[in-house]
Design goal:
Blueprint (H helix, E strand, L loop, with lengths): L3 E3 L2 H9 L4 E3 L6 E5 L3 H11 L8 E3 L3 H6 L6 H10 L4 E6 L8 H4 L4 E5 L4 H10 L3 E2 L14 H8 L5 E3 L11 E6 L2 E6 L5 H4 L5 E3 L1 H4 L25 E6 L3 H7 L6 E2 L7 H10 L4 E5 L7 H11 L4 E3 L9
Parallel strand pairs: 1-8, 2-8, 4-6, 5-9, 10-11, 12-14, 12-15, 13-14
Antiparallel strand pairs: 2-3, 3-7, 4-7, 5-6, 9-10
Helix pairs in contact: 1-6
The structure holds adenosine monophosphate (AMP) and magnesium ion (MG).
The site of adenosine monophosphate (AMP) has 21 residues, from strand 6 and strand 10.
């Protein structure tokens, strides 16, 4: 299969209607989209990106009415959050009703479904023209850094999918915030550009233990969000996440090293990891940001790219045994 890159939305719609999968830009990262109501299309998504079978997909819709049409329970709080943050980088987990039309292939056996409205006109236009919601995980090979540019998708999926829609660089650059609502409270399962601070204007917010605990190993993750347990966002190089009190301590630690990210930023983190891989880096050092505000999501992606391999610039020890 020859993978085409262009901005031909009509071709994307034609392929999606025929049960194919297509890479589409979103404001977070590129997504690999397929008809969320068609089990065969969903199976193609899992195959193309070699996604672990127990990792459920996010369904992309144009608005809350479409969530209702999927047969999902919508608590008042979810409706208010959707009003404020959609279209945007907030994924909400909804419980299925008995009459839900979401296939098991999307939710992988769970009784809930993750949904969001992407803030990208190509993507929204495609959903509208298709007339059905689109399931879409990140358009990379599972485990590698998420794609934020068409060439990243091409590097991973060339020959495995028919079309990549070119929407340029992704504005945000890391995946959406994933939340679950229980008893009128918000629990964050994956941090993203919508911060705990922003959500706490609406409800009490907690953070899932799996996100915070740097001692927790990937293999025995107890997170209720299956995807968070896998090796993730990882380049081929060994990544060291560095805690440094100040710039000076960091600079001293990485002296002589070639592959260093001293000021990580959401929009460029994944692209830089991919570039370092191309340059055959064997070790990459990244300074961890403070775990607050937007830094929380960045911190989370970095410690996962580093597979929890965290070192301190003052050399007091490591958190990795
Ligand atoms: P990705 O689409 O690759 O950005 O990953 C989607 C994320 O949403 C993964 O971490 C999934 O585990 C999570 N997710 C999807 N559906 C559910 C669900 N029903 N319950 C909990 N987490 C979910
Ligand atoms: Mg992903």
């Amino acid at each position: 299969m020859n993978t085409i890159i262009n901005s031909d939305i009509n071709l994307a719609v034609e392929l999606l209607k025929a049960g194919e999968v297509v890479a589409l830009p979103t404001e977070t990262v590129y997504g690999l989209a397929g008809n969320a109501l068609d089990p065969a299309a969903i199976t193609k998504i899992f195959a193309a990106k070699k996604r672990p079978q127990d990792n459920p997909l996010i369904i992309h819709v144009t608005g809350i009415e479409m969530v209702r049409e999927l047969g999902l329970e919508i608590p008042d709080l979810a409706e208010r959050l959707a009003e404020s943050f959609w279209a945007g980088a907030l994924t909400i987990i909804f419980k299925k009703t008995k009459t839900s039309v979401v296939p098991m292939e999307v939710s992988r056996g769970l009784d809930s479904v993750a949904v969001r409205v992407p803030d990208n006109s190509f993507f929204l236009e495609t959903i509208r023209k298709c007339g059905f919601p689109l399931a879409a995980p990140s358009a990379n090979l599972s485990g590698s850094p998420s794609p934020t540019r068409p060439k990243h998708v091409y590097a991973d999926l060339n020959g495995r999918i028919p079309l990549i829609i070119d929407g340029g660089h992704c504005r945000i650059g890391i995946e959406s915030t994933v939340i679950i609502i229980k008893n009128n409270q918000v629990k964050i399962l994956r941090p993203g550009a919508i911060t705990p601070e922003m959500l706490s204007e609406f409800a009490h917010v907690t953070v899932d233990d799996g996100i915070n605990d740097v001692h927790q190993k990937l293999s025995n993750d107890i997170s209720p969000s299956p995807g968070t347990k896998y090796k993730h966002y990882s380049p081929k190089a060994k990544v060291y996440a560095v805690i440094a009190e100040n710039e000076k301590a960091f600079t001293k630690l990485v002296k002589g090293e070639q592959f260093v990210i001293s000021r990580p930023a959401m929009q460029t983190l994944f692209a830089r990891l991919r570039r370092f891989d191309q340059q055959n880096a064997d070790k990459i050092y990244i300074r961890l940001p403070k775990r607050e505000g937007i830094g929380f999501a960045l911190y989370n992606r970095i410690i996962r790219a580093a597979e929890f391999n965290i070192i301190r610039a003052d050399n007091i020890g490591t958190n990795n045994e």
